From TrEMBL:
PANTHER family: SUCCINATE--COA LIGASE [ADP_GDP-FORMING] SUBUNIT ALPHA, MITOCHONDRIAL, SUCCINYL-COA LIGASE SUBUNIT ALPHA. Succinyl-CoA synthetase functions in the citric acid cycle (TCA), coupling the hydrolysis of succinyl-CoA to the synthesis of either ATP or GTP and thus represents the only step of substrate-level phosphorylation in the TCA. The alpha subunit of the enzyme binds the substrates coenzyme A and phosphate, while succinate binding and nucleotide specificity is provided by the beta subunit. GO terms for cellular component: cytosol; succinate-CoA ligase complex (ADP-forming). The lineage of its organism: Bacteria, Bacillati, Actinomycetota, Actinomycetes, Propionibacteriales. Heterotetramer of two alpha and two beta subunits. Belongs to the succinate/malate CoA ligase alpha subunit family. This is Succinate--CoA ligase [ADP-forming] subunit alpha.
Length: 298
């Protein structure tokens, strides 16, 4: 089992002919993902050639729209490698086509655009992950995004993280146990899938035995996740909050990492999580060690 993405998922790539789209389509195929085509209105009717996990050449059709791609291939997942200026239009197109899962890798999407397409998605069929994220991987099944598929195999851990690089580090640290699914939700102020969404899905997934949650300074997502864990999550959760050493008043890296007063600090988030029964590490490695102890006792 896994959440949101599995070996049956049929993936298309919006921006399949661009530099990033080309590179990561190749890596997704190599990891065993069932990539069935792509979208670029200007190159509709052409094909792109790649190599699948078995080393065979595959010709992927390029469609003029997401709706056409779904109609012709049965795709239910799209990964968007689209420049920031065009991301909002690409997202709305995917929502209108009723794709089940849309992973937006693009960094630098204007917050207003994210707010508009997030609002547009409410009540519709598309789950959004991102923007500004590494996407989602269910090891041994499928990859939708840019997470290196060779870090870790399948196992009992569910991982949700604001940070891409910390997603990779945690997967590497716990590679001997493995993961059901690892999701990088992105660090922008407005993201589609939240910590709480992922926690709920992991709680309901019978193969996920324990959960790692990685947050960072800024906003109140981790505090809200702590409240949710306290009320609804029965599985063990360990956490890490990036930014303990951040100088006060500085914004760090992600646009969402903006601290106001005492709310949003790493310490405030750590205390909220610990009050909900979450063990919080001071470093990623310490967090992995806490998870290791839990997994060995299960």
């Amino acid at each position: 089992m896994s959440i949101y993405l599995n070996s049956d998922s049929k993936v298309i790539v919006q921006g399949i002919t661009g530099g990033e789209g080309t590179k990561h389509t190749a890596l997704m195929l190599k990891s065993g993902t069932n990539v069935v085509g792509g979208v670029n209105a200007r190159k509709a009717g052409t094909t792109v050639t790649h190599v699948d996990a078995d080393g065979n050449d595959v010709e992927l059709p390029v469609f003029g729209s997401v709706a056409e791609a779904i109609e012709k291939t049965g795709a239910d997942v799209s990964v968007a490698f689209v420049p920031p200026a065009f991301t909002k239009d690409a997202v709305i197109e995917a929502i209108d086509a009723e794709i089940g899962l849309l992973v937006i890798i693009t960094e630098g999407v204007p917050v207003q655009d994210s707010a508009e397409f997030w609002a547009y998605a409410q009540g519709k069929k598309t789950r959004i992950i991102g923007p500004n994220c590494p996407g989602i991987i269910s090891p041994g099944q499928a990859l939708a995004g840019i997470t290196p598929a060779t870090i870790a195999g399948a196992g009992p851990v569910g991982l949700v993280s604001k940070s891409g690089t910390l997603t990779y580090q945690m997967m590497f640290e716990l590679r001997d146990f493995g993961f059901t699914t690892a999701i990088g939700i992105g660090g922008d102020p407005i993201v589609g899938t939240t910590h709480i969404d992922a926690l709920e899905a992991f709680e309901n997934d019978p193969d996920t035995k324990a959960i790692v949650m990685i947050g960072e300074i800024g906003g109140d997502a981790e505090e809200r996740a702590a409240e949710y864990i306290k009320a609804h999550v029965t599985k063990p959760v360990v956490g890490y909050v990036a930014g303990f050493t951040a100088p006060e008043g500085k914004t760090m890296g992600h646009a969402g990492a903006i601290v106001s007063g005492s709310s949003g600090t790493a310490q405030a988030k750590k205390e909220a999580l610990e009050a909900a029964g979450v063990k919080v590490g001071k470093t990623p490695s310490e967090t992995a060690a806490l998870m290791r102890e839990i997994l060995q006792s299960l």
